[in-house]
Amino acid sequence: MNANRLLYLAVSSDIYARFFISPFIQELVEENQLFLIVYNIDREVIEKWLPLINTENI
Q1: How far apart (Å, rounded) are the C-alpha atoms in residues 27 and 35?
Q2: pLDDT in tens, the chain (58 residues)
Q3: By the 8 A CB rule, do 47 and 13 touch?
Q4: Number of H helices, E strands in the chain
Q5: Number of Cα atoms under 13 Å in the Cβ half of residue 34
Q6: d(CA 5, CA 49)
């Protein structure tokens, strides 16, 4: 992976609400250090960046 870039997995807000909020999945996300973007399909906006990190120096 390029040191200047982070790879995020984009998921829709409805999938996040149904699947990614379970404690088991949250644990997997943390253990594997996954980066998520949660977006709203209808409004066409990003709702969350997880984890929220400072990317100014990347």
Answers
A1: 13
A2: 556 788 899 999 999 999 998 999 999 999 998 999 999 999 999 999 988 766 555 5
A3: yes
A4: 2, 3
A5: 15
A6: 15
